[in-house]
Design goal:
It contains seven helices and 13 strands. α2 packs parallel to α7.
Length: about 250
């Protein structure tokens, strides 16, 4: 059985417990019995070989057979600030950002935001992260941060980090001359492979001219993703994928 299961409780001893959805998946969906061997992770960066020792109404108890540190993270943190779209598109965005290696997702509150982040929505996104992490093999969870205003997100990103602000260059803000292509921005020298990256993606209606001016004032680099208008989730994943590939290329050089 090659399925991976997430332990909400840190695994520090010879046994682990699965409860709730994870226990249900293991026993009801996978039909695991006592003696079945599975892979566990707890978000610490390690993964564990476990063997089912007991199944009862409370959940599943597993013996920890082995622990191993397996690093499948990007070299350097990648923070994805994005004005979330509505509905199921949120799930798709979160799943793919997790698979591509984003470290943290920050729901942005912008002037034209269409989806307002709530505590229940955040809990739902965190569950999407767990499911995607199980599938893709990461041993650390992408953090779903508390919602942030765009102003705070722009101001708190360290000046030493690479800060990329997705921008449509032909808008009426007058900032076309300040915008560069994503490829050109990522090819610029001056960053080690483990550099920290912050990305900002606007809502369906785009960033307002005031927001674009604030990004430029705070030292963010305005980047274009090409001549086509992309939906929020497409723009977010285009940026994350390009950055992830660039980081891998820098590691190999």
């Amino acid at each position: 059985m090659s399925e991976r299961f997430f332990s909400e409780t840190p695994i520090t001893g010879p046994r682990a417990e699965l409860r709730g959805a994870e226990a249900h998946h293991l026993t009801r969906v996978m039909r695991a019995a006592v003696g079945a061997e599975v892979t566990l992770f707890d978000g610490s960066g390690q993964e564990f070989a476990g063997r089912v020792a007991r199944i009862d109404r409370e959940g599943v108890t597993l013996d920890i057979v082995a622990a191993r540190a397996v690093n499948r993270e990007l070299a350097g943190p990648l923070h994805l600030g994005v004005a979330l779209p509505k509905g199921d598109r949120q799930r798709w965005l979160v799943e793919k950002a997790t698979e591509l290696g984003a470290t943290r997702l920050v729901p942005l509150i912008c002037e034209r935001s269409v989806a307002q982040p709530t505590p229940s929505a955040r809990a739902r996104l965190e569950r999407f992260v767990i499911e995607a992490t199980k599938q893709c093999g990461r041993n650390r969870l992408m953090e779903v941060a508390a919602p942030s205003t765009l102003e705070d997100y722009l101001a708190t990103a360290p000046a030493a980090a690479r800060r990329l602000f997705a921008h449509v260059p032909d808008d009426p803000s007058g900032s076309a001359a300040q915008t560069t292509s994503l490829a050109a921005a990522l090819s610029q020298a001056g960053h080690a492979p483990n550099y920290e990256t912050f990305v900002a993606i606007g809502p369906e209606g785009g960033f307002t001219p005031t927001e674009v001016a604030a990004a430029h004032k705070n030292g963010w680099q305005l980047v274009s993703l090409g001549p086509r208008t992309l939906r929020v989730e497409s723009a977010a994943l285009a940026l994350v994928a390009a950055i992830a590939l660039r980081k891998r290329s820098d590691e190999e050089d």
